[in-house]
């Protein structure tokens, strides 16, 4: 069992792996971690992974056998585990609790070569549906307060396997960054009786300088206050707090826009590593008037250095106006 | 002039380089950035840098000529510039101001080969004295609210030149992360009438599990809530908010402990890249009862991925108890 430890000054929590600690030798070989022998996420290697929690197997077949198009499994090296009690406690000035939670892997395709930008709209919608289904299912567990879904693509984004996958981590606390966003949105709502994200979206649509793409349900743009070069956000046009309640129609629209944006990113920046993070409301209360869910897509192009660690400020060498133009002009391969 | 832009929801500021924007091509070659032809920080190449702001030239000599042992210059590619007005303004929901501030480089030695861990105690104390002198001098500028001093060592830590140097950035606002620390320390002080850092330090000394080294004035340890593997903090034993007011005796003690810690890091982890950040109180008010200055030393061993961006939580695979033992056991080269 790992430990969650809380900083008494900033209130930040960290997950500390007290079970299988890494010594110095673990960091020596890190750059070759993606290079792999037999891939546990490929067809026929199902026995190499923990059993499936959720699966899409359109032609039927036995659990943990072939025939699947998408699988969700527990992470083999989980940051948090679903068994056990939280056992919140203190040691002097410090607070800690047990590393209770869920850590799942969404294997998005059986095909080792295809990346998310190559998926059909239907395949991408299937991934989004898996995200929704797993989010909704985990809400039954009263210990869990927040579900984070994210994808690391490419070695320098933190991916350890190249086979296309994303991850879900469900946490027993609402993390600080999410709380910050929620509180900021609440403050804005109190002040203006409107959603801050809706207002920012309207302004982006009016100014039209940082937009990259849009369709009936979603808008993609490089936000005015981008922390990173070529950072993109995808927001639903309608004010909605909860990603998992998205309609099937909206899901298809999101799949279309995501495929286009991933294609533009790949074309403009020569297939860069990236992270995307799904920002959605905490599990309870289920509806928050103030919040507006969205996706943040961050290509990994710069390094985080002392200045950023010290301030929480980022130095962004590419204004979003410039980034958006490059992304709009990128030549998409059909 | 760059722009400082503020996120209306989280209140985070970013520095956006609207002057000389980087396009996609700027990110293609990044990995070879440290490899250098003629080094602008070496002896005899003084004309390649902006003129010196501060210098240590024990044997005398002309400004910007040879004979120096340490030079401070303006960054040739500054994130912020000292000229001009802040001009705080809004554009719809967004806030911005001009990129006014200081961005200086401390060239720590004329010798291209020697790194900070190789310095004598006197040389390291000279670097610390330069930090103090520059911090104190910039306090005369009423537009500036915070001075951050940090060092990026090695390519993956964000360093762009290998010649040993550190940086100073003075900002027109107190950055969010610093505010977070200050507020947390204030809350703790209100609750307990004691300094949170002093209490944490006492507990670290009592538990004795995460200590790495100590002397008369300073203690070095891997903090209980380490975000990163082998993270180390160096705290003054005495409760002091302001780094720049440190006595000459304390400066020598810090130089001794820093050299030892940098040596231990190098020995335990095979010369890893690292960042260190000097956390000190904002410029005004000059004395804060609640704050306790310190240095955070972070080797760059893991990658920041989607989970960390989404939550502000870190997953640390090496508990500080384990890291401290490896660091204590490291064989130091004399």
Question: What features would you describe in this structure?
Answer:
With 334 residues, chain A is α+β, with helices and mostly antiparallel strands. Chain A has two domains: 156 residues, 2-Layer Sandwich (HIT family, subunit A); 152 residues, HIT family, subunit A (2-Layer Sandwich). The first copy, chain A, is 25% helix and 22% strand. Chain A is built from six helices and 15 strands. The first copy, chain A, has a ten-stranded antiparallel β-sheet with strand order 3-4-7-9-8-13-14-12-11-10, with helices on both faces. A four-stranded antiparallel β-sheet of chain A has the order 2-1-6-5, with no helix packed on it. The longest helix of chain A is centred in the last third of the chain and has 22 residues.
Blueprint of the fold:
The structure is a homodimer of 334-residue chains.
Chain A: E1 3-6, E2 13-16, E3 52-56, E4 70-74, E5 89-91, E6 94-98, E7 102-107, H1 121-138, E8 146-153, E9 165-171, H2 176-192, H3 196-207, E10 211-214, E11 218-221, E12 232-236, H4 248-269, E13 274-279, E14 294-299, H5 306-311, E15 314-316, H6 320-329
Antiparallel strand pairs in A: 1-2, 1-6, 3-4, 4-7, 5-6, 7-9, 8-9, 8-13, 10-11, 11-12, 12-14, 13-14
Helix pairs in contact in A: 1-4, 4-6
